[in-house]
Amino acid sequence: MSIYDQDLDKCAANFVALSPVSFVERSAEVFGDLPAVVHGGRHYSWALCRERSARLAAALRALGVGRGSTVSTMLSNTPEMVEAHYAVPALNAVLNTLNTRLDAPLLAWQMNHCEAAVLITDREFAPVVKEALRILQREHGREPVVIDVCDSEYTGPGERLGAHEYEALLAAHAPLPKLEGPTDEWDAIAVSYTSGTTGDPKGVVTHHRGAYLNAVSNAATWTMPHFPRYLWTLPMFHCNGWCFPWTVAMLGGTHICLRRVEARPILDAMRERQADHYCAAPIVHNLLINAPAEWRAGISHKVRGMVAGAAPPAAMIEGMAKLGFDITHVYGLTEVYGPASVAVKRDAWAAQSLSEQTRLNGRQGVRYALQEGMTVLDPESMAEVPADGQTMGEIMFRGNIVMKGYLKNPKATAKSFAGGWFHTGDLAVMESDRYVKIKDRSKDIIISGGENISSIEVEDALYRHPAVLACAVVARPDPKWGESPVAYVETKPDAQVSAAELIAHCKSLLAGYKVPKEIRFEAIPKTSTGKIQKFQLRERAKSSSAIE
Predict the structure, then answer these.
(1) pLDDT tens digit string along 107-135?
(2) Taking Cα atoms as reference points, which of 234, 195, 303 lies closest to residue 532?
(3) Closest by alpha carbon to 308, among 291, 326, 333, 286?
(4) DSSP state string for 202-240
(5) Is residue 188 classed exposed, middle or buried when 0-12, 13-18 and 19+ CB atoms within 10 A define those classes?
């Protein structure tokens, strides 16, 4: 035993489990008079936000919620969703934020799988939730306690489904004296479900330590100042809003809530609420680029955006730069709490041409400061690929900002952690400066005549055409080449372009074998966060090829 092990034990004075709940208590204590939440006519200070969260925690405790209980939410980006992120972890319970665009059978499946004890739901979603609860009771015998939220900013139809109304429930319970968090930082804080493109979705279980460290990493990565005015364009149900509910709490910032992700209200909030930070998938940034110039008038302060959710097209990064918005490109997955790597900007990049800056900023970059490892490995040998910008491998992570595993799925957990690294499934190269650049998802690489074609590279070329609003490139069966690329395209309003023109445009930028063999002008399926669902397009391409 070392002398440094003698009489130097952990105790209450020198060791506390890491939990992002502590950020809420600190901001209420230090910045209690400052704004925490703004939503329409509702304005809550940090003292009041903490009190409301503590009242919710007290109410949930009275309903039997405790360590290991699951509380599901079916909520938009409203104050109630912020409060759930603070109250549920304070009870050492597990937060399950449901995707508001899911259908009833899938909602029922997820609530059954995570054994939801309580559901907090907005009246807007009453029709689908009512059916989900019916399925949940009929097929699984489960009846969670339902708490209805009647948001002040929602005036549409929607019945109450439960025995409790949110505001009345809060009023009926005195706030807990403290939002404490767990005694063990390895305890689960949330379970978030993957999109389930093949088979049932997987429940990603995250822990308090990881959520705490990723919240801190967000601030460090973005060099966020105290008191940011953060606009909720990213759904909080997606990876717990990339841990930003807790990042904003840590910095004493203001949550500016939005029920709808549309260009006009986003730009209005930037101007009228002075929102200065926001996160979104590339398609949301494109909405802002293509919005009428008069909608952006009057936004004179610096606005900083974070982009992730899909590999951003170079045209999007370039377009945001021309607007004067400062964009930071991050990369991650639900399994790593949202973003876990960043294209850290170097001062020297500012001297480069705009196109070169766009290329540099378009990379997935390097690991977050508090993530222990990120590299590109050969998935078979688990050897690191050379930093030559050519040799392809799989992006892998290891460290504290990696999930506990998949709920009730030990086989998938073991497979994803094979060799002591988390396997992302994303194929990439490592450049000479050790910045990582994605080439494609392993299932999205198109193999044509023995040559690998990156769908991302082809999409980048298409996005450089001024008529293209959104596009996706997938493989279709080809009798000669095995596979060939087909592009699905949505054009900007009032834009006119033919398939032949787009193919000629691609030929000017790409090697011949990479050029799409066909352009289809069709609606592109997307998730609620704006991420394109290529698995649907792959099926569409296969079925249409069979018909042809």
Answers:
(1) 999 999 999 999 999 999 999 999 999 99
(2) 195
(3) 333
(4) PEEEEEHHHHHHHHHHHHHHTTPPSS-EEE--S-TTSHH
(5) buried
